[in-house]
Amino acid sequence: IKKALTDLGISHDSSTPHHPESNGAAERAVRRVREGTSACLVQSGLSPLWWASAMECFCFLKSALDRNVAGKSAHEERFGVVFPGPLVPFGAAVNYKPSDPTELNELHAMSASVKPGLFIGCAQQAGVGWIGDVFVICQQNLQNSERHSEVHIKRLPAVQMNVLKEKDQFIFPVFELHIFAARCSISSCLLYTSPS
């Protein structure tokens, strides 16, 4: 790596090994991602098993929302446009139109053609950014699963998702279920529990 940096004429400063305080900017960035991810999990009500998905969602939304001194987001700096997709927090309630044949068969012919779900994040393609797809999980799948590995993340076009709000506020159904579960002494490996 050092040779490549030298050949390309790129300056590469390093910090003192085993002394994180000597690299304040990087440590601050790591801390912000860790705290933001933790906040996403608490707000959503999902367990720490969802850490990786919450971190991806947090970082993506941060790049779309945070502004630099020039008033532009990282997304705008990289792609030249304001992020055109949905700005939805991790774990927020959505309705989505399923396209999977199994899910379509679960819908009653006379019922709505959408299913309740949770927003997990925006799908990205390396070097291209957002390509119009989102990730959701089915609320029913989450409720019927005993393990994190049994919950299937679905990828679908953002136009097949509708964000649910109440009085212009995002709804977090798992968090609300968690409050209910705490009152009724219900436990689940999929719900957030604060560290003791």
Main attributes?
two-stranded antiparallel sheet, 7 helices, alpha+beta
Unreliable residue runs: 182-187
Inertia-based shape: elongated
What's the tally of helices? 7
Biggest beta-sheet profile = 5 strands, antiparallel
Helix content estimate:
25-40%
What's the total number of strands?
7
Structural class: alpha+beta
Order of SSEs, N→C?
Answer: HHHHEHEEHEEEEH
Mean pLDDT: 82
Terminal Cα span: 43 Å
The side-by-side strand order for the widest beta sheet comes to: 4-3-2-1-5
Radius of gyration: 20 Å
Beta-strand fraction estimate: 15-25%
Topology:
Layout: H1 2-8, H2 24-44, H3 51-65, H4 74-79, E1 93-96, H5 101-106, E2 115-125, E3 129-138, H6 139-144, E4 153-157, E5 161-163, E6 165-166, E7 169-170, H7 173-184
Antiparallel strand pairs: 1-2, 1-5, 2-3, 3-4, 6-7
